[in-house]
Write a structure and sequence with these properties.
The chain has one domain: Rossmann fold, CATH 3.40.50. Helix 1 crosses helix 10, helix 7 crosses helix 9 and helix 8 crosses helix 9. It is built from 10 helices and 7 strands. A 7-stranded parallel sheet has the order 3-2-1-4-5-6-7, sandwiched between helices. It is an alpha/beta fold. Helix 6 links the parallel strand 5 and strand 6. The longest helix has 22 residues.
């Protein structure tokens, strides 16, 4: 008798929050689940409507709905379409911080900017789980996105590192809360991947060059190398900076290659599957082995 493929999600409902464009890790995850039979609905901010609409035109089986995580009404509307106990998976890939929380030293962060960064990037997971609470199915899975800066200092990650540390703590707390219902909560922590958010962080430094003055490390070296190539505009410069960042990180990893959004999506498929039925409250590093190396 043939055994069922544990990565077959046919007929299961998946909600994915945080799709901005084709480069989004959230989109790679949505596509991976859709390709394995899941009924996927993505949530997006209104400002990304045209980009998401273009994606859905190429993948009509995926649904989309506006969902600003700072708006309780949006979260409620997004999840009210699910009958109780029918949502197999919730993917939270939402993070944002104003440019100055990346470029300024911690002592200069304002309370407003700090709270906004943590509200969008960490508390939104709790808010999303609260809105989806009755819809979540026993045996289901909640997955969020973290980064190694939650556990070690990465100078250019600013207040987002604090937000990711809070997010990882929240993963453990939610795992304890939802565990009695058989619902698992985990985080995927990819290494550097070029996304719209990543390019936005680079642009913040390019527009505040004094923030990198006198600093050493991967980002200042990447900016210097990219500037020597004399790109014609800021966005092209940001993309070249990121390529240098990815290249240096890849050289430091045992696998020796840059990471992709599809690498993170594969980890999400595993965590949402029965193969990971005993895994909860964990952070899975998907970084080519970078975090296993001393001195990084």
């Amino acid at each position: 008798m043939a055994q069922q493929d544990p990565l077959d999600f046919t007929g299961k409902h998946l909600a994915v929050l945080g799709v901005a464009d084709e480069s989004s890790i959230a989109w790679a995850m949505a596509l991976a689940f859709h390709q394995r039979g899941a009924l996927v609905r993505v949530g997006h901010q209104q400002k990304f409507l045209s980009r998401v609409t273009a994606l859905l035109a190429r993948h009509p089986g995926i649904q989309a709905q506006r969902c600003d995580v700072l708006e309780p009404g949006d979260l409620g509307s997004f999840f009210q379409g699910y009958a109780p106990g029918t949502l197999h998976g919730l993917i939270h890939a939402v993070a944002y911080g104003p440019a100055q929380v990346f470029t300024q030293p911690p002592s200069a962060w304002t309370r407003e900017d700090f709270n906004h960064t943590l509200g969008v990037s960490a508390h939104s997971l709790a808010a999303a789980v609260g809105a989806a609470n009755t819809a979540l199915a026993p045996g289901g899975s909640v997955i969020t996105l973290s980064f190694q800066a939650a556990r070690r200092h990465v100078p250019w990650y600013g207040a987002m590192a604090t937000a990711k540390a809070a997010l990882e703590s929240l993963v453990r707390a939610l795992a304890a809360e939802l565990g009695p219902r058989g619902i698992r909560v985990n985080a995927v922590a990819p290494g550097p991947i070029e996304t719209l958010a990543a390019l936005g962080e680079v642009l913040a430094f390019l527009r505040s060059p004094e923030a990198l003055a006198g600093q050493e490390g991967i980002l200042p070296r990447a900016v210097e190398a990219a500037r020597r190539e004399a790109p014609e505009d800021d966005l092209t410069l940001a993309r070249r900076v990121w390529k240098h960042v990815e290249s240096e990180f890849a050289q430091r990893t045992p696998l020796g290659r840059a990471l992709t959004a599809e690498d993170a999506a594969g980890a999400a498929l595993f965590l949402a599957s029965p193969l990971a039925r005993a895994i909860t409250g964990q952070v899975l590093d998907v970084d080519g082995g970078l975090s296993s190396q001393l001195g990084l």
